[in-house]
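Q: What does the assembled structure look like for these inputs?
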Amino acid sequence: QQQVKQSPQSLIVQKGGISIINCAYENTAFDYFPWYQQFPGKGPALLIAIRPDVSEKKEGRFTISFNKSAKQFSLHIMDSQPGDSATYFCAASMSGAGSYQLTFGKGTKLSVIP
Amino acid sequence: DAGVIQSPRHEVTEMGQEVTLRCKPISGHNSLFWYRQTMMRGLELLIYFNNNVPIDDSGMPEDRFSAKMPNASFSTLKIQPSEPRDSAVYFCASRVYWGLPGQGLYYGYTFGSGTRLTVV
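A:
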């Protein structure tokens, strides 16, 4: 059972545009939602993360929007640049029982064209 | 800080052979995770350790897979015998925590660069 559904699978955005990637989760026990960025030949790297007690978190050009009632969260990349071209993964975890395991979405391949 | 170090970076082996993947986590991180990445299934958690003790190995696909963490600075993932369907990129990750004022505990995984395994 896939617990975190991510869309779209791929995304092409013009330089300077806004990239939006969406994720939906099923398990209401999830309480931590990070996004990871992966470049070819590299492992995923933590980009930004949010907890459900806030609806939005911004770090530079990257913003997470969180909708607890809809069980959805999204990543917005403002002023997208060719260097942002990568695969982005959303993830979710719960902090109970000390596990903190991350469940990942299947990824979105972003291409920013000049 | 050298990050999480995995070896080898690439491994090509014949079906039926034993394969051993290695990982050195970041010093001081007490949790270690092994993931497998494929186009079809994305990132799958295989097993994770807390303080060198295996906590959850429910993601290990078959008895052909085994993992060990003999000490805080080293872990191995072994496949014996290997099969073509095991071809994937295998990642090791260790975990770091930090706290933000008024926002609770945050944590992130630091991934290694992965081992690309090809079984022919």
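Chain B touches chain A through 25 residues (CB under 8 Å).
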